[in-house]
Amino acid sequence: MTIENLSVNKSFGGWHKQYSHQSKTLNCTMRFAIYLPPHISNGSNVPVLYWLSGLTCTDENFMHKAGAQRIAAELGIAIVAPDTSPRGDDVADDEGYDLGKGAGFYVNATQAPWERHYQMYDYVVNELPQLVEATFPVSDKRAIAGHSMGGHGALTIAMRNPERYTSVSAFSPISNPLNCPWGEKAFSAYLGKDRATWREYDASELMRAATQFVPALVDQGASDDFLTEQLKPEALQSAAHASGYPLALNLYEGYDHSYYFISSFIEGHLRFHAEYLSKV
Amino acid sequence: MTIENLSVNKSFGGWHKQYSHQSKTLNCTMRFAIYLPPHISNGSNVPVLYWLSGLTCTDENFMHKAGAQRIAAELGIAIVAPDTSPRGDDVADDEGYDLGKGAGFYVNATQAPWERHYQMYDYVVNELPQLVEATFPVSDKRAIAGHSMGGHGALTIAMRNPERYTSVSAFSPISNPLNCPWGEKAFSAYLGKDRATWREYDASELMRAATQFVPALVDQGASDDFLTEQLKPEALQSAAHASGYPLALNLYEGYDHSYYFISSFIEGHLRFHAEYLSKV
To answer: How many CB atoms within 10 Å of residue B1?
Structure first.
């Protein structure tokens, strides 16, 4: 696994770095970012929070705007931010911002023309952690979080792999993609018309059926323009009640879908994950 | 003075807002951003920190990337971020990133074709504060800060108007534009060939000659690619020694010219300003 360093910036005593590598899972060159806290200087292996971004984002949005490095530097947590889809001139795309590049939805596509590259579920669950754990001074303790499409990704990945993640959190997740326009468009394209195959990528369906639990925190802005039509946190809440899932869901008055919301509450997410990451 | 609200985002209990207005000083439509802390909800008039950004920036860079809202919300300080130049199709421009749009250098241009619009010094010192103080629940207590070109702007504006600002701070300022390529290019264009007219816009010259003092804080990254050729903090340090200017200048190992540096140390700048803004 070759990996190329693209940039380094010192940040809160630690280091923000961008890398590119050839992904076997996605059949293309991928970029990701990692924040390494100052703790690595004394030989510590630190746990890792994976952050999955939303539609149209790259590895940069969260690192630029969330203000997470300050708290990660205090708590001794690395943060890895992958891109949101495969990239490259030969990668299938769509004119919409909500399908194709920038919109991988963290699924393994089964349909043409998407299936050759759009295997973001496997990339995030397997290839990227293997690469990160082989390359950087990190432990095998992992948490996962995300925003919007990435909140959907974080919740579904954590619930399908409860042995791999200590905790999961999301801002404004697409909570029930089977029943919203974003989900229906993307899943129809990537997974085909058989809606039975969509269920393993639906956070509310997975939460309703869950028997193994990953502690979960979800924050949602009450003034989010996408709340009613696309995000549907009430489906997640209902599913958690049905299965007894340990979900803390907070609705914050006046906040929208932007990074102004995320930055206001990211500290709580990092402290939530730190509590579980620090358990043996 | 008409002013149009363009956006609102709740942030750390306060509000980030963008506005546009027709500037008489600049003869064009200008956009600026303001962060209003939660304290305004109980009828308080809060003091204002003006933030001047660097080359190529708009009102958005600082608000997106610096992470200042968290501390401003705690301390009860509003932050105003103007654009870095006049804007519009009829505004003179240059192919370079370091002259024309995005590169106003906070001076009053005297030379064609710049002088009709490029009056950023007057805009920041007079028109913008008048508009802000007439529109928002703010007091007439002002501090000023900036980055790179905006650090130059903040230092020169504070030193030429010590009665208007309680304190000044800068990240990585262009400290001696008379003697660096960025300054020589911009001042030749905006101010003409007579270098005597440049001196009133040179922070080191002003600091060396100062008899009235505004407490000043300057932070500089030691791994900043522009340090030696463009920024020259040693000129500012030397000037402060000569006049006895109250300048605290810090050099931070490993940090570069980016917002990763600014976000790492912005808390100290806000607490520095709060100390002076809270004095009667």
So the answer is: 11
